[in-house]
Amino acid sequence: MSDRCRIPETTVARLPVYLRSLLRLAAGQERIVSSQRLAQLTGLHSARVRKDLAYVGASGTRGVGYDVAHLLDMTGRELRRSQETPVVIVGMGQLGRALAGYGGLGSEGFRIAALFDVDRAKVGQQVGAATVRHLDELAATVATEDCVIGVLATPAAAAQSAADALVAAGVRAILNFAPTSLAVGCDVWLRDVDVSVELQILAHHRLPTRPTR
Amino acid sequence: MSDRCRIPETTVARLPVYLRSLLRLAAGQERIVSSQRLAQLTGLHSARVRKDLAYVGASGTRGVGYDVAHLLDMTGRELRRSQETPVVIVGMGQLGRALAGYGGLGSEGFRIAALFDVDRAKVGQQVGAATVRHLDELAATVATEDCVIGVLATPAAAAQSAADALVAAGVRAILNFAPTSLAVGCDVWLRDVDVSVELQILAHHRLPTRPTR
DNA sequence: TAATGTGAAAGGCTTCACAGCC
DNA sequence: GGCTGTGAAGCCTTTCACATTA
C-alpha cells in the first residue's frame, strides 16, 4: 500500500499495541508471526491486523507470515520511534509527579524535557531527573527543546489556560489528564485520559442492580 | 426512548463527559441547558448530544432546552452514581500508590475497598486510607465487599495472572493500567489505559519529520 | 421563534470470504 | 496446505435536515 495514503486514526491507535506484542515476540526469539497469532495476542481480528499492517507499508509472505523485525521496523517508523521525542509535563501534583517518575517513558522513546507548575513553592524542586520550573518559562523551554508533545496534569480549573499556554508555546499534541473537556484548535491533537471517566464507564456495566434499599 | 433498549457503548463512554459538564453548569447555578451548549462544552455535535440523552431516557422542552437537574439525575442513574461503588486496586508500585491516593475517586462515587500486592514487604503498609494486603486475600475481600470493579496497576509480566485472580474472585470489570493486552472472558468488561500508548499515538502526529540525519 | 426528537443519508470501521501466492 | 492481501458486504456511528412542539 502506498506511503501516500492517510492512515485512519483507528489504525494509528492500534499500532502501539502491535508494537508491544512485537517487542515481546522479539524478546522471545520469535522471528515469524502470523496475523492470526498477532490477533490472538492483541485481542483483535486477523483481517484487521492484516489491514493495519498494510497501512504502515509492511508486507508478509503468503503461506508463512510476517517477519517480526520487519514489522517492528515499519510500526516503529510510523510511530516516530527512532527519534527521541521530548515531552513537557505541566502540573506537579500527585499525578504529575507520578508521571514524571514513570520509567516506562524513557524505554519507549520519550524524554521528559521539563516539568512546570504555577506554584512558586514547587518551582526548583527536583522530581525524578528534572527540576520544576515556573509556567512562565514554558514558551522558552518548548522552543529550545523543540517539544511537540505536552502532558497536562493540572487541576480541572487550571487545565484550559495551561492548554492555551502549551499551544501558544508551539506544542502540537496534548495528553490531558485533567478531568475536564478542553477546547483546542483543530491543528492540535488532543487525547484525554481520566480515571474517573473510565471507572464510571465500567460502573455502568454492573450487573442488574439489586433494588436500592 | 424505552428503558429496554440497549445503550451503545459509544454513548455510555460519553455519559461521564456530559456528567462533568452538567456538574459544572449546576455549580454555576445554570438550570437550563441546550444540546447546542452541551455540545460546545464537550466538543461534540448537538445532534449527537440529543441522541445520547434520549438513550438515557432524558427529555427536554422544545424551544427551551433540558433541565440540568433532570439530566444529572438521568445520566447519574445510568452510571450507577447513587450507589457507592467499591473498587480494589492490585499492584502497589508508583502508579498504584498514586491511584490509591487520588482523591477524585471518592467524589465520583467510588470507594477504594482494598489494596493488594504480592510483595510481602509491601503488605501491611498504609497507603492513603487503606492497608496493603497480600493478593492471596483477594477472593475473600472481593466477596465481603461485593466489589465488581478491579484496577490493575502491576508490571506487565504480572498483569495476566492478576487479572485471572480478579475474575476468579468475582470481579466483572477491570481497568488495566499495565502495559500489556489482557485476555479475559467476554463476560468481563475491560478498559485499558496506557500512558506510553497514548504518547505514541500523539507522536505519530508530529509534523512531517525532518530527514533523519 | 427556538430548540427538541428523529428518520434518512453519509461516512467509516470491521468482518467475511476468497483469489493469489509461497 | 497455509497465510497474505483485499474487494465486498454488513454493521455501527455520526451528521444532516426537518417535522414537531412549547
Helix and strand sequence of chain A = HEHHEHEHHEEEHEHEEH
Overall 3D form of chain A: globular
In what range is the share of β-strand residues of chain A?
15-25%
Secondary-structure content class of chain A: alpha/beta
Low-confidence stretches of chain A: 209-213
Roughly what percent helix of chain A?
Answer: 40-55%
Number of separate helices of chain A: 9
Keywords summarizing the entry:
alpha/beta, disordered C terminus, 7-stranded mixed sheet, homodimer, DNA-binding, globular
Describe this structure in words.
The structure is a homodimer. Chain A is α/β, with parallel strands linked by helices. Chain A has 9 helices and 9 strands. Helices cover about 45% and strands about 15% of the residues of chain A. At the A-B interface, helix 1, helix 5, strand 8 and helix 9 of A face helix 1, helix 5, strand 8 and helix 9 of B. Chain A binds a DNA duplex (22 and 22 nucleotides) through helix 3.
